[in-house]
Input
Amino acid sequence: MTVEMVETAPTCAYPGCTHAPEPKAPGAEGPASHYCDHPDHNALGAFRKFRAKRKQRKEDRRAAAEAKEEPKGAAHEAPAPAPAEAVQGGTGQREEAAASPATDGRGDGAHSRDTVVALVKQLAADLPSYIEELAIITDSAAAEARIETVTRASAQRILAAEERATLAEEAADMAVAALDAATATFSEETAAIREEAARKVADAEFVRAELERYRERVAMLEVRLDAVRDEADALRRAHVAAPAATSSPAAPAEPAQPAGNC
Output
């Protein structure tokens, strides 16, 4: 009798997934991945899946045990005969005990044996899953601890980053407010300086215009002064020439001729 070996393609180690594992990247170190490219299919996800299944199985077994304990508890509440005394009393008592309701106790024993056998079978059926779960736990427990540590550190870093971002935003708001105030003050001072400069320029223009007008007046006065000087010089010369004309001898007058001699 020969047994044919059938090679099956590897599948994802995540419970219930039938996809092929993610291929190993060329040149990558370490063993190939046992999970597909799904983001939740990893050792931690598989461990959580098996833990959820185990919890569900425990709840199912607890519910089944509670359901089985209910009729057994009712049987214990009913008055039961003493089969031990019948066994110790002899053969007749054994027969009476056999005919008595002691058969219910043997029935309970058979029922318990059946329950134990069922539990053993269930344990044998669940043993491979327990073994697989233990194999995953050896990898995922440390991974979960590392992930929890990294998550906690990341949360602390995120909180610190958020605090720094909040402080930076507050500082930026304060800086923007100060910049706005400085800009408004600078604008007001610049406008005042421009108004003052414009007023001074207007005053300077006015002074320049007045100076030009005074210069024109001075030029006109200088022209008039020159004319007055010329007139004064002319009068002075005339005044000097007038006494000289009066002091010179008069010319002799010609004798008048008689009218008849014409």
Observations:
- DSSP finds four helices and no strands in the chain.
